[in-house]
Amino acid sequence: MQFFSIIRIVGILVMSFSFAMLLPAFVALLYGDGGGRAFVEAFLLNFSVGAGLWWFCRHSRQPLRAREGFLIVVLFWVVLGLLGAVPFILLDNPDLNFSASIFESFSGLTTTGASVINDLDSLPKSLLFYRQFLQWLGGMGVIVLAIAIIPFLGINGMQLYRAEMSGPFKEQKMRPRIAETAKILWLIYLSLTILCSLAFWIAGMSGFDALTHSFAVIALGGFSTHSANIGYFDSDAINYITVFFLLIASCNFALHFSVFEQFSGRYRGQPKYKIFKPYWQDYEFRFFLLLQLCLFLICMGVFGIYNYFESGNISVSAAALQLISITTTTGFSTSNVSLWPSLLPILILLASFIGGCAGSTSGGLKMFRVLLLILQGRREIHRFIHPNVIQPIKLGKHILSERIVEGIWAFFAAYFFVFVVCWLITIACGMQPLDAFSAVIASLNNVGIGLGSVSDNFASVPDSAKWVLAFAMVCGRLEVFTLLVILSPTFWKD
């Protein structure tokens, strides 16, 4: 294990992340909210830590293997979560203790969107911007950004890319050079953010709210600058814009990449109407849209039975936003889901286990894995009737290898194991079983909204449980295996 090379790279990544503290400092200067000093101090501290790690190991430049890549990613997210809490600790408003600050930092970076802050409207603009910006950085992954803009790392970027990116196809490269792929992915990510921000601004948001909420939407994060969350704006236009961009952000970014290639003229001679064909040809995306439609119709039916629309308890746009926000693991809130009638609160929360598409910024198991589990289940039923039949699993014309199917079952088992362990520990920390159940789902799936005592925020969660939930957030963000693999004794054997 090349420990000195690992420390050197983590140091460079931490130094890069420290510059994220300067943007909120500029916002503090712009609005005169008094938070600038805390962010400058946080920048100096983080940069010093990163520089110290790099300087100590600056001469270690051994090539990385897959194991080092996984360890760098885990260490980086843990260190980043700890250092990202510095502004919350330094600022007097909000008055958070150490555990709450760590929880808020990890929640932002992992795009979970669970908060321990009660009154967001009283916070400095700089801190509100920082919370939103944390989500945006964590959405696509700070490490993928580093691969794109810091070529002097002198490492095999594919090892970090494999450990950081989501989905079962981590080996897939959209371009021969991984740095080029990372740059284009971040260009797409930035472009979607700008488009979403402009749409919000045209719909009536202030420039500050439009920008910061676009950070949360494209990252599928769920933080807001208002205590009433997205429901603060009470606008059908804003609700529908949010729904549209949530669906776009929940799509596999490899499809966005393919469309980008069409626009850039890489495949010349293609008819213009075929530019958006990759979306419709993708079985996972079609399955994702079908599931969202089915859940929406169920919600509309239940609301109709209970006369929710006639009583004015909720609008169609607000219900659609709340539903899609939770099922895509974003966590925006237009109303208290716990108060929704019948089976809806449990149904929607359980649907967050599925999440969005593989290769997106969403949490959960991912739609592709769930689709393959369904196909595998159907194959096993067929084998029960015809024991000697050989039937591969196919998506369209593509035959999937048994290795992928086995890996998905292993992932499902590991995901369920982490969920049960975290649930039991949070109960031991003093939470009620149902509250703990809801909080772990919200954290592991990176959805941020729970039921019961955590339906509004997580301020009532015991400090010890906050650490457990922060661990669950990182597990969900890194898709369990990346974190669990370093706990295996085999990982540390040469």
Automatic annotation (TrEMBL):
Topology versus the membrane: Multi-pass membrane protein
Cell compartment(s), UniProt: Cell inner membrane
Keyword Secreted: no
Pfam families on file: TrkH
Keywords annotated in UniProt: Cell inner membrane, Cell membrane, Ion transport, Membrane, Metal-binding, Potassium, Potassium transport, Transmembrane, Transmembrane helix, Transport
A molecular-function term among this protein's GO annotations: potassium:chloride symporter activity
InterPro entries listed in its UniProt record: Cat_transpt, TrkH
Listed GO CC annotations: plasma membrane
Coiled-coil annotated spans: none
Residue positions binding K(+): 111-112, 220-221, 329-330, 446-447
Segments crossing the lipid bilayer: 12-32, 38-57, 69-91, 133-155, 184-203, 237-260, 287-308, 344-365, 408-429, 467-487
Its job: Low-affinity potassium transport system. Interacts with Trk system potassium uptake protein TrkA.
NCBIfam families: 2a38 (TIGR00933)
Recorded family membership: Belongs to the TrkH potassium transport family.
Protein name per Swiss-Prot or TrEMBL: Trk system potassium uptake protein
Organism: Muribacter muris
